[in-house]
Amino acid sequence: MIRKKATKKATKKARPTKAKAKPTKAKAKPTKAKELWRRSSSAPIASTQFDEVLALIEAARGRAYQLVNAELIKLYWRLGEYISKKIERAEWGDGVVDELAGEIAKRYPGLRGYTRRNLFRMRQFFEAYRTDKKVSSLLTQLPWTHHLTILGRAKHPAEREFYVLAAIKERWTVKELDRQISTSALLRSGTKKKVSSAMAQMQPAALDELKDAYSLEFLSLPDGHSEDDLHSALLRNLGRFITELGRDFCFVGSEYPVQVGNQDFAIDLVFFHRGLSCLVAFELKVRKFEPADLGQLSFYVEALDRDVKKPHERPSIGVLLCATKDDEVVEYALARTSSPTLVAEYQTELPSKELLRKKLHELYAQLSSSEEPG
Prior knowledge:
The structure is a single chain. The protein is 51% helix and 14% strand. It has 16 helices and 7 strands. Strands 1, 2, 3, 4, 5, 6 and 7 form a 7-stranded mixed β-sheet that branches. The protein is elongated.
C-alpha cells in the first residue's frame, strides 16, 4: 500500500469539545417476585448467620410445591377418568369435550390448561395407567410436563413405567427426561449387563445402578478422539456426566493416585456411590475392549479396597468404559475374574431414528411374548 507523505503546512489545532451525552434509559428495577426467583435459581450465596432460617424457608417452599403439584395431578386424573367413562358409555362424544373446554374458559377466564387438547390428554393419562397399580400411586411425584413427555414418546406400558420410575428416582428435569428418551435409556438399561460373578455376589444391587452403555453425546467428541480428549471432556461436563451415571454418584477425583510398593499409579476417575456405599473406579478406553484391560482395572479395585476404602464402606467396584466391545469376548474375560467389575460401552452420537424404532419394536415384541399366558 502507498502511503501519502504528511505536508509541513501547519494546521490549526482543534479545540476539544465535550461529547454531548446521550440520554440513557433507566433500567427498570426488578419486581420482588423476580428478585426472589433470581436468588433462588442463582448460584449458592456465601454462608451467613441466617442459613438455618433460609433452609427452613426453602424446605417449606419445596413441600408447598409438591403439595400443589400432587393436587393438580390428582385433579387431572379424576377429570381424565370422568371423561373416559363418559365416552366409553357413549354418553359423550368429542363435541361435548369441546363444550366442556368452552364452559371452563367462560367460567374461569385466564385459567390455563383446560383446552380441548389438554382434556383429551387427561383422558389419555388416566387410560394409560389405570391398570398399572405399581405406577399409578407414584404419578403425583412428577410434574404434568413430565407426564406429557412420557405419554407423547413412550408407546408401550413397560416403556412408560420405566421412564416414570427413572424420572422419579433420578429427579430428571423435563429436558433431561427428553434426552434420556432420545438416547434410548430403556434399551441401555434393559440390556443384560456384562458383570463378573464377584459383582453379582458382592454387590447385587449394582446391577440396577449401572448401565451396559452410557450416552455421552453431550461431549461433542470428534471421530478419532484420544483418551485424553475423552477424559478432559468428561471433567468439563462433570455435572452432565453424573446425571448420566445416576444421582447417587459423587465425584471423588480424577487421575486418582494410589501407591503400591514403590510405584505410583493413577485411576482415571473415582466416584463414591451413596446407595451402594462403595467406591467406583472408572477406566477409560477409546478402543475396543481387550481382555488384558480387566487385569488393570482389577488391580485398581484391589488398591482402593486395601488403601482407600473406609471400614464401614462396602467393597469397591470397577467399570471399564470402552468405545466398543464384543460381548462374547467380555463374557469369557469376566468368567474367571474374582474382582467386582463391569464392562460398558460409551456412545458419542444419538442413535438414528430408524435404529431406535427397530430396537424398540424388538423390545415390544419380547415384552408382548413374555406377557402371554402359558
